[in-house]
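Bumping with the actual sequence this time:
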Amino acid sequence: MLQSVKTKLLVPLVILVSISLVTLVTLSYRQMRDAILDQEQVGYRNIESIVRNDLEAVFTSARMGLTGIIHMPDIQQAFAERNREELLRLTAPIFEQAKRDGIEQIQFHLPPATSFLRLHQPKKFGDDLSSFRATVMQSNKEKKLVAGLEEGRGGYGFRVVAPVFYQGEHIGSAEYGMGFNPKLLARWKEQCGGEFFMYPYASSGVAWQKVDKNKPLAGTSERDPLAVDAGEVKKAMSGKGVHSVYLNNAAAAVLIIPVYDYSGVPISYVKANLDRTGILKQLDNVLRDSAIHLVLSLLVLGVILFALIGKILGPLNRISENMAIVAQGDLTRDFHVQGNDEVARLGHSFNTMLHNFRQLMGQTCKVARQLIDSSKSLNMLWWLKMSRHFFELV
């Protein structure tokens, strides 16, 4: 099959340019896609920071309040003298104020872990807590402040336990306790969007009510529509940072943020359900724009290559047309090619060849005429000689 020089040049160039453009556009798309996804992960880590900072703020506030109580001399003396009525009188107004700040219980313990006074249940005391209140045991044993999430008889709660001293002698411990405040989850929802839930993970079984790991302890919505596989939860709890899971064809993201007890063991987690439709729309827009840029670039470069090759090969086409005319016998043609490139030199060479060929043809015609004239002269001489010979015979 006959192929023109333009086709032989244009096809490989278009293929090469197409491969280069596809590669560049693909790399550009991947970079933009990765940038969007990286920014999404940064947002997830920011959510984790907000959650952890707010939880730490809860403990910090509780530490400050508890520290103020255990350093009051009157309270220290009443506790040292085991004067429950006086201790209740001194701390009851403090508890009323603390309840407005989200504190649900204030409790005093005798070493190692015997309840002495519960401000939230003043008539209940003297029970041994050593079998399930590890924070109390550790605080009295090591005589240091202990804070963290802990499961008690009433369920999960944030606990801050500090040792109490009187005249340099350790006399027991005091505790601030609070549950999961829905206002905290609501603030996360307002700041970050989505729905937030607090789930239990590891239960010691000490709570009066059985802990259902599939039921949230608190949440910004009555129902959690996004169920996460237990394997994903386990993977999240074995790590230290936020763990993300995509659901509903990646239209939703679930963040799992482990919450630790006083010893650093994860026993609960914050679950955030986030909408990813905006991210998916950005990715679709990037893909669409990349495809449009690729098609337009291919069309523009194709037209440019076609025009350039046509301009470059135009003189060659004219030479070919003139040569066809010369081949039919018209030797009067001249090849007028401008420039100093290979095609122009080819045209000049053909002009020189035609000029030489015309000279050769002219010389050939001249010699032919001379031969004809000579032949005629010889023929006349022969006839004259024959005529003379004939007359001599007669």
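The tokens above came from a reply further down the thread. The beta strands are 105-110, 114-118, 146-152, 155-166, 169-178, 195-200, 218-219, 243-247, 252-260, 266-275.
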